[in-house]
Design goal:
The protein has about 60 residues and is an all-alpha fold. The chain has three helices and no strands. It has one domain.
């Protein structure tokens, strides 16, 4: 669990910014989004394979510039 304490002289905006940064760094939101629905292992493999193909295609297109 992520927690932040108000530092002396720190504004609420700075505190909130620090909190958001720690939440994104910890990966809490991404894991919640990922676990929102059940995805079978075969479906997960299919999605990962699709992403890998897109990544490879992007790398190839960038190299040709």
């Amino acid at each position: 669990m992520v927690s932040v304490k108000l530092r002396p002289g720190e504004s609420q905006e700075a505190l909130l910014k620090r909190f958001r940064k720690q939440v994104t760094k910890s990966g809490v939101l991404s894991s919640v989004r990922r676990k929102r629905w059940y995805v079978s292992k075969s479906e997960l493999r299919r999605i990962q394979k699709k992403k890998a193909i897109r990544r490879a295609a992007r790398r190839r297109s960038r190299r040709g510039r």
